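LAB NOTEBOOK - FOLDING QUEUE
OPERATOR: T.R.
BATCH SIZE: 2
PURPOSE: Compare the predicted structure-token outputs for two unrelated chains run back to back under identical settings.
PRIORITY: normal
REVIEWER: second-year student, initials M.K.

ITEM 1
FIELD SEQUENCE / FIELD STRUCTURE:
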Amino acid sequence: MIRFLGDNIWDDIGRLAKRSGRKYAAVAYVTTGATLQFGKGDLLIVDASDHAIKTGQTSAPVLGKAFRAGAEIYSNRNLHAKLFLFDRIAVIGSGNVSEFSRLYLFEAAIMTDHPAVVSPARAYVEDLKHQSKRVNARFIARILSIKVVRPWRRLFFPPKRVKPPIRPTRHRTWLIGVKELDENRYRDEQRFVNRGEQAAEKRKARKSNTVGWLRWTGRTRFRRLAHEGDSVIQIWRPLNAKKPSEVYKYCPILLKQDNPKWTRFYIEEPPNAEKDALPWTVFKGLAKQVGISQRIGPTTERLMTEEQSNSLDALWKSARR
């Protein structure tokens, strides 16, 4: 599983923390215990330097409460990471543990249970612990005595309002059946195509990639719900053929162009798209392995789960070897 977290990452982190056993965290600054609490058995590495405490970037009372609750705490003034481990799940992102982050800042993070990420992340925290200063009762007493003088900017120019929500950022991959079109039938739409391709060209990740498009009609789920940022896996059927011939790997949707009679989705295609494509019969076998049990074919419009998408990506690479 791998997920992108956006909008308010602290909702997801809070739920993970409540379900987990021992929590590990290497996070630069901690100023609140409401977002994420540390207690007995937990490991927290934070910047608790005198400067961080004095400027209010890290809260001595919050660390004191976590210490009394039994958390193992270390301080490292060079720490800038934002890494959290909850059992077998790692969250790596941009957010410090603060109300300012939760209420006013747009944060982002990646959450995954992939061993190739979780294991080295845990080793990283353990190694960092040995390069940090252990926080004991004397350390807590000393930082509690430091007078906090918050930056003048925060004092006199507080945020005007709580951040507005942004649209859901969950990973979405569509498995869709497409057929080759006779473009001569759509000459009267060429001005829309030109306009869409020009706009999509500006959104490509790589100059060497090309822009393709999918034309959709009818009141279908894909036409209504798919949007920029989603990915598509194309079950490709050549012109006049009855059965699919191959399946093309993930392509991101760069632009959605709506018209009352049709919708075009402009996608970014790599130069090696043909090389990475799988024969239709091979793909059907992979689809069964990832739990796509329903019948799929040239008219498929299916929104895949994150687990199916991730598993299929791993199997795809091995199938091409």
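ITEM 2
FIELD SEQUENCE / FIELD STRUCTURE:
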Amino acid sequence: MCNFNKNNKGRRIDFCLKPLLKWLTSNDYTVVASCCGHEKYPMTIVVKYMCNGIPKYYELLSNIELLRTKKFYKRDWEGVYYIPEII
């Protein structure tokens, strides 16, 4: 599950994703959101890229473009986050 990370301005990062996210950011990916899925939903990593000066967002693992620019995740009745376009 998510652990609070004081060194990340209060944002939560799933511990199991930390090595992958570190590698992505060191290879010039701009990661804006992520979730391991908590054994209920697919793992998701939202990245940002620029297209003709316009920021675009897509889910890296499924390669699905997301039309929203924020609030990528929804929370189900159990409190687990997911991206509706992915499931």
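REVIEWER COMMENT (ITEM 2): The two ends are 20 Å apart (CA to CA).
FOLLOW-UP: none requested
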